Amino acid sequence: MTDPTTPPAPAPGGVEVFAPAKLTVSLKVVGVRADGLHLIDAEMTSIDLGDTLTFGDGDDLTITGAAGGLPVTAGDDNLVRRALRAIGRTASVHLHKRIPAGGGLGGGSTDAAAVLRWAGIDDVDVAAGLGADVPFCLHGGRARVTGIGEEITPLTVITRIFTLAVPPFGCSTPAVYGAWDDLGGPTVDGPNDLEPAALRVEPRLAEWRDRIGDATGETPILAGSGSTWFVPGAHPGPGRIVVATVDRH
Predict the structure, then answer these.
(1) Residues whose CB falls within 8 Å of the CB of residue 150, separated by 6 or more in sequence, listed in order
(2) What CA–CA distance (Å, rounded) separates 213 from 236?
(3) How confident is the model at residue 68 (pLDDT cuts 50, 70, 90)?
(4) Are strands 142-147 and 151-154 parallel, antiparallel or unpaired?
(5) Which of 51, 133, 193, 247 is flagged as catalytic?
(6) Distance (Å, rounded) from C-alpha 126 to C-alpha 83?
(7) Neighbours of 88 (CB within 10 A)
(8) Is 122 tagged catalytic?
(9) Is pLDDT larger for residue 240 or for residue 232?
(10) Identified catalytic residue from 22, 97, 111, 193
(11) Is the predicted pLDDT of residue 247 greater than 70, yes or no?
(12) What one-character DSSP code corresponds to residue 194?
């Protein structure tokens, strides 16, 4: 397996970079900044489900793969294009999607981080300018993530297996945080403070929570702001993805 935390040397063409999905194992919202951005205390880990980006000469983006989830387009707002613009580079990029879009698994963020690794850039400020999840995706492995997502503290390397259920719809992260505000900033006994807000924004999440819970006998946990639910352990079956964490740095 490609180590997602080892940047390849920049080259004029033909460089392949693996972009692992990120799983938010726990998330506590600990405050709100004056500018309205939320402060978090989270555990995130890279998993062995991931996209592949191949860089060559040129200036275009092609996307293949059948990752499910929401559609992914190659327009100017794609995070691969945004990352290239942020670092002043051009490349012909073939992006093969395996991470379901809109599932809260950091598919766009990890693709942006892959661009930075390809270019040999490890600047957290550049990463944070592209999105709150990009700094962790650039670091990879397993880490405690604080601030608005830009403060990364590596955690001990471990290996775990999770089963993920990814619905065919996404959750808007800004909408979920807005609902968290509207609800008065709830905290929960479980690992993810955003679950009540996500269920308000997207009530269909409850059906998917119950489906994976009934199928596995485990208590599902929402990944970040959703829409993915996960449980510990390997529980193979239709409509679920079994993934093992990479957890290395």
Answers:
(1) 124, 125, 127, 128, 132, 135
(2) 13
(3) low
(4) antiparallel
(5) 133
(6) 9
(7) 7
(8) no
(9) 232
(10) 22
(11) no
(12) T
3-state SS assignment for residue 59: coil
pLDDT of residue 21 exceeding 70, the answer is: yes
54-83 residues labelled b (16+ CB within 10 A) or e (exposed) = bbeeeeebebeeebbbeebeeeeebbbbbb
The CATH class for the domain spanning 15-154 reads: alpha beta
Residue 205: half-sphere exposure toward Cβ, Cα within 13 Å: 28
In this prediction the pTM is: 0.87
Q: Where in the chain is the domain with CATH 3.30.70.890?
A: 161-244
Highest mean pLDDT among 160-164, 194-198, 242-246: 194-198
- Segments of the chain assigned to CATH 3.30.230.10: 15-154
The pLDDT assigned to 66 comes to: 66
H/E element, 206: helix 205-216
Q: Could you confirm whether domain 161-244 is CATH 3.30.70.890?
A: yes
Structure tokens at 178: 């807005």
Average pLDDT over residues 127-148: 96
Lookup: tokens for 89: 């580079």
Q: Is 210 a catalytic residue?
A: no
In sequence order, which ranges of 15-152 are alpha helices (DSSP H)?
79-87, 107-118, 124-130, 134-139
- Mapped onto helix, strand or coil, the DSSP state of residue 137 is helix
pLDDT, tens digit (0-9, with 9 covering 90-100), for 156-190: 978 889 999 988 899 999 999 999 999 999 999 99
Closest by CA to 169, choosing from 226, 113, 118, is 226
